[in-house]
Amino acid sequence: MRDKRTTKLVIAVFLIVGLIPIVGALDTTPTTIVAASDSSAADKASAAYVCDGVNDHVKIQAALNALPSSGGVVLLTSGTYDCAGIIAPKAGSTLKGEGESETYLKFTRDGRINVDREHVTLDGFSVQGSGYSSGVKWLGVVTVRASHAKIHSITGTADATIQAVFLLIHDPTVYAPTLQDIEFTDCKAVDTGTYGFLHNAWGTTNKVIKDVRYENCAAINCGKYGAFNPWITGFDFAELNDIEGLRVKN
């Protein structure tokens, strides 16, 4: 006779296994794939957008714009994306690469990522910025100007023509509320001509930047290739802004 405990275990296993497809079906996050000009043939075949190596930011932005209002994921497959303009993720969206050593975004001609909407996530790629004009030199290759952003596993570098690789700035002309709840995890600024991570504020109101969290982030050789100004450093948390609730953890 089968032991009652064994019977219960068998029933439990069947229930768990039976739930797996249901749990998988619940993950309905819209995902759009973008491939680079040098991505693999398989990646290009699976992509909704295939870049040609010229103004790749246009197709990346088109993929972001095509996401529903509820958000979603734009996945950048392995390869190099040549971007000569701005990428601006929409609210609730995720721009995701296949890893810092796999997906590269090279920004020229004032190109950069502007996080100007709430609940944006950037994850798993490298950025490089160079050749910025005087009109945008006070920004960053990754410029965060809206709350509730997550910046994960991004490695970045830039020359001395822009103020920072990662810039967190309160700009009331873009986002008037208090800038808060920003998370940097496993991010690095390496071999730069400028600041690695910089906090700043413009205007006269809401100059407190609140609840910013850094975990396992690093700034290495900032100022190695030229210098944006004589005060270049890896981390600068208080320029024209005030600080509340800053946490830095290795």
Brief write-up:
16% of the residues lie in helices and 41% in strands.
Amino-to-carboxy terminus distance: 57 Å
Report helical residue fraction: 10-25%
**Radius of gyration, whole Å:** 21 Å
Here the CATH topology equals Pectate Lyase C-like
Highest CATH level, the class: Mainly Beta
Helix-strand topology string: HEHEHEEEEEEEEEEEEEEEEEE
CATH-derived architecture: 3 Solenoid
Mean pLDDT: 90
Account of the protein in words:
By secondary structure, this protein is of the alpha/beta class. It has a single domain, classed as Pectate Lyase C-like, CATH 2.160.20. The chain has three helices and 20 strands. It has helices at about 5-25, 40-45, 55-65, and strands at about 30-35, 50, 70-75, 80-85, 85, 95, 105, 110-115, 120-130, 140-145, 150-160, 165-170, 180-185, 190, 195-200, 210-215, 220, 235, 240-245, 245-250. The strands form two sheets. Strands 1, 2, 3, 4, 6, 7, 9, 11, 13, 14, 16, 17, 19 and 20 form a 14-stranded parallel β-sheet that branches. Strand 1, helix 2 and strand 2 (about 50) form a beta-alpha-beta unit.
Give the tags:
250 residues, alpha/beta, Pectate Lyase C-like, six-stranded parallel sheet, 3 helices, 20 strands
Topology of this structure?
Layout: H1 4-26, E1 31-35, H2 41-46, E2 49-50, H3 56-65, E3 72-76, E4 79-83, E5 86-87, E6 93-96, E7 103-107, E8 112-115, E9 121-129, E10 140-144, E11 149-158, E12 164-170, E13 180-185, E14 188-192, E15 195-201, E16 208-215, E17 218-222, E18 235-236, E19 242-244, E20 247-249
Parallel strand pairs: 1-2, 1-3, 3-6, 4-7, 5-8, 6-9, 7-9, 8-10, 9-11, 10-12, 11-13, 11-14, 12-15, 13-16, 14-17, 15-18, 16-19, 16-20
